[in-house]
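ok so I'm stuck.
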Amino acid sequence: MVVWALVSSQPTADPYLPGHGDPRFTVDHYDLEFDYAIVGNRLSGKATLTVRALADDLDTLTLDLHALKVVSVRGSRLKRHTHHGRRLALKLAEPLAAGATAKFTIAYRGVPRVVPDKVGEAGWEELEDGVIVASQPGGAPSWFPCNDRPDAKATYRIQLAAPSDYYVVANGVRTGRRRTSSQTVWTYEQREPMAPYLATVQIGRYAEHELPGARVPLSGVVAPALRSRFDDAFADQPRMMATFEKLFGPYPFASYRAVVTTDELEIPLEAQGLSVFGSNLLSRDWDAQRLIAHELAHQWFGNAVTLRTLRDIWLHEGFACYSEWLWSEAAGLETTDQRARVHWGRLSELKQDLVLGDPGVHDVFDDRVYKRGALALHAIRLTAGHATFFGLARAWVERHRYGNVTTDDFTALAGELCGPSIAALIDQWVYQEPLPPLPAA
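replied:
not stuck anymore, here's the structure
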């Protein structure tokens, strides 16, 4: 009966990700310590969470933790805990009032596995020789207990001990690197608030080197055998960073790393302060260069400014895709307008059954979301004018930096800066199925 009482009524935060997140509280800080064995893919962890109640009389907290065994839970306010499926329920001895905080330390271990959801699998995965953690959208519980919702942003300290012949990268600033007899202990601090799905560690036989010529510290993390290919493929990274800072405002984090696995990857991925690419993207071809630009742009749109729920994914992918076209023009290739009209033509030939602002769980990452989102932004730019549009983009980041947003927030800001008539244009692109015409260039 105790187990049933704790897990029978589980909260959830996002209808696209049922069984994830608890909207009744947030986490202000995660202190994560890991010991990882490459052989056997075994992880031992200790997570100390500083939680803050968002509702009065909070007597149970529900955390997300997948496929790992809880060894112990400690906390001065804890009465008991139950781990069932992916949910770890903490029953409190006394309820928390809204705004009150408490700390809990969870020890756990096991073999981390990706988290399956209707939108796809995500989380901790073994490479041929190392680890990649790609948690978007629901994979964070594969390696640490968390309140797995994008609007529960927190600061982090991530410490991981791994064999000394491996290089470890995590989010934020590296504040420690200490070698023991058989391991190296790496410590990183993510000081700007971060959604759980953007937390990551990358483990491989890498070396890190700086990329000169940028205001922001840039580096590449890559196997030495791939260094020359990396330098060629990422030669424009400093200029790309400068272009996006001019268009969107200052880069929002302390540094940016590009990690390249020796494995080939189907798609690259962004985490806060870094992006991860497969070795198959070490190319000067446009299909590789556009993805390098795409992942960098996510640092502004997706990481600094983050959606509240997955239905508004176009606010991430539309801006990132549009940034590809902006970079094309800055690099002296096709203009933004040329790229936009080519993709408008392609979209016009597809079935018109997608609502950009609520695509449904099975179409969250459909390519039409990316391209139609970018086209919506281009339509706003053509209507409002170049200066007004980029004023909107910079204000969007400045006003909502390190926070969470909805499409309604974007529409309100666009109405303020571009005029009230822009709302009808946004509604046409975001909430109606038929593909609208692009305004004249």
